[in-house]
Write a structure and sequence with these properties.
The protein is an all-alpha fold and about 140 residues long. About 65% of the residues lie in helices and about 0% in strands. It starts with a helix and ends with a helix. Bound molecules: heme C (HEC).
């Protein structure tokens, strides 16, 4: 294959996009730790009586089922964090158990980064989460 300038430019652009996406997700991870993990993190494990909110992996599971592509996933999560609207909830059982999520003071831009990070899926899961999903929802 002949390596031409447009070809090199294309490779460069593809690499740059990967780096940008990586950046967004690593910033998102940091922001998630700051704004969300105190409630959605590992504390309490899979014992819902010990938790204050569902694990973030459970939130991802419910949202990805309804919003499988990144754009609609990020929009849905961002809308929720901006305004907790019970009518748009995908986790009514969690609202009954924990009460509705309180408003969180975080910018829209930062929430979008957090949502991209959650979408990418490299997130914390309490031990036993995967087994729980298989038991509760089947392994389809
Ligand atoms: C003070 C505790 C707390 C913090 C901090 C918190 N949440 Fe929540 N969140 C909850 C609780 C409790 C629920 C379950 C009840 C509900 O769905 O409203 C929940 C549910 C959710 C849901 C599912 C909503 C639904 O019902 O469909 C999303 C999405 C979510 N949180 C995202 C986030 C994100 C992103 C952050 C960080 C910016 C965050 N939360 C920070 C307590 C919290």
């Amino acid at each position: 294959m002949k390596i031409t300038a447009p070809f090199l430019l294309l490779i460069f652009m593809l690499l740059q996009q990967t780096v940008l996406a990586d950046n967004e997700e690593s910033q998102g991870k940091h922001l998630y730790k700051t704004f969300c993990s105190s409630c959605h993190g590992l504390g309490g494990g899979m014992d819902m009586g010990q938790r204050v909110a569902p694990p973030i992996a459970a939130v991802r599971f419910h949202y990805i089922g309804v919003y499988p592509d990144k754009t609609s996933f990020v929009t849905a999560i961002t809308n929720w964090v901006e305004k907790q609207d019970e009518n748009k909830s995908l986790m009514r059982g969690a609202i009954r158990r924990f009460n509705i999520m309180p408003p969180i003071s975080v910018s829209k831009q930062d929430t979008q980064k957090i949502a991209s990070y959650i979408y990418a899926g490299d997130i914390e899961k309490p031990p036993g989460f995967d087994e729980h999903v298989k038991e509760m929802h089947g392994s389809h």
